[in-house]
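Example record used in the benchmark description.
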Amino acid sequence: MNSPNVQPSGELDFTYIFDISPGLIFILDKENNILKVNRELASRLNTTPEKLTGTKCFLCMHLSDQPAAGCIMPVMLQDGQEHTAEMFVSNLNGWFTITVKPLFDRAGNVTGSMHIAYDISELKASEEALRKSEDRYKKAQEVGHVGSWEYSLDEKVFWCSEEGKKIFGLDLETNHFTAGQLLRRVVEKERVSQALIALVERYEPYDIEFDITTSDRLVRKTINSVAELIRDKNGNPARVTGVLRDITGSKGVEKALREEQYLLSALMDNIPDHIYFKDLESRFFRNNRAHVESFGLTDPKELIGKSDFDFFVRDGALLQFNDEQEIIRTGLSVNKEECTIRNDESVNWYHVTKMPLRNVDGKIIGTFGISRDITSRKKIEEELGLKNEQLLKTNAEKDKFFSIIAHDLRSPFNSFLGFTRMMVEDLPSLRLDEIQTIALTMQKSATNLYNLLENLLEWSRLQRGITSFNPVRFIGKPVIVENMQLIQESAIKKGVMLVLEIPDNLRIFADENMLGGIVRNLVTNAVKFTRRGGVVTVRANRVPNRGVMFSVTDTGIGMTREMIGNLFKLDVNTSRQGTDHESSSGLGLLICKEFIEKHLGEMNIESVAGKGSVFSFMLPDPPESHPIP
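Model output (structure tokens):
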């Protein structure tokens, strides 16, 4: 599909009209205040657009303190329709055809107007001249309605209309001129002379452009002249009649357009953003260099006719296609961030603006877009998000640490100090059995304090990353038995039975100290929340091709789903007393979780309130470089 030769819609059209159009364009609010003017109008008024902004239209154009007679803006404000009229503008000293277009807000209310004016002074002058000399200007009116001229083949003289004289810079009081008088103004004399001879002798078309200069050579103009040969009644060449136009201005516009096109191409090919145009089927028909290179291509032609389906995974390409079809259907622009996945599985983020592409008649003929690669920014945002999460976790850990110190550590100390004060003050009056009871209670408090301090120190080492991790191969049962013996005494005193179900030759790949800490903490917790007469069972079995599965099962008081969900949330207080009012900080479970994750395992918890809990975890087999014999 060939690329439509159109200007992009939206802001690009607006800029093009204001900066390039030879017409005079200005925008007013409802009170005739100038909101914006183009450069051509400001130049004609010998000022700048900035100085005109905010002034009254009739003051700038008509040097009047009120709207000029015949102004069509009040009519437009009343009916909200476009109107066109011809007016003489005093400050521009000329006649203009002025088209007034209403501007609306989103609710459909008229908020102001856009005025587009074209200088018709020359046209008015030509009409006036034609009225005064209908015969002489009839042919000129048919050909061009500008300056006219006539060359008599018999008399060898030129006649020029007044406008023609002005264009050539000739004496306005003189009616006839020799060929030499005219050719003195022509830069390429020979070419112009030969064109006239060819018309007369061979009846070749005469339609040429040539440059002329004023008598002082200071001003150079470009002229377009069209003529035809007139024969007498006998069919012999009699005269040449033609029209001429000063096209210096249009040539300037053409030059400006070429320069504008060059600047636009330079901008498109050097801007790092991706700029692309698509047809109604979302196929590329124009792309800037950055967009072409983003697909690994070097020749822009390689991208013509292709679509996003040629470069992106189907789901992503379909989303972009649907976006563009919606733009074509509604005429509404899209501005968003989107993630793209290419066929080579590379992932990129872009900030995308897509707009409808319209032709000169306002019909939507496709879409165009500008995409900026924001992948680096997204990565930074992701890193910041992770750091914020880490910061929140660190703050929660700090709060948890201080909470344990303020409550779980201080309370046993208060109890311990109370008993020591009692022994100091009441020792002479205490019986031996009372002293023994106090001593046992103090021992229990000291043991709890010691275990809590051990957990605090271990957790602190984990958070600072200084806990050593040295997994080795060993027989698991002796290590587990050794750690369970540390809890045996408290279990017996509480009347809780400990059961161990583990094969004698079960080999494990783990850090012995960490595994001991996991077993010790999980069994201690199970005993703590199991009533007298209950059972705590420790099991371990190999799961083929996976590793060793451990579980600690109790017949204790269990937990609700909500309690399980909050177990490892540092910002939620999950501590509760054991069945014999034992203290609990929840720190032991946190240490178990981190020890297990250090082994690339995961803790699972199943519990029913009032019936008991099962804490299980898998210690994966080592990699092939450390096989278990």
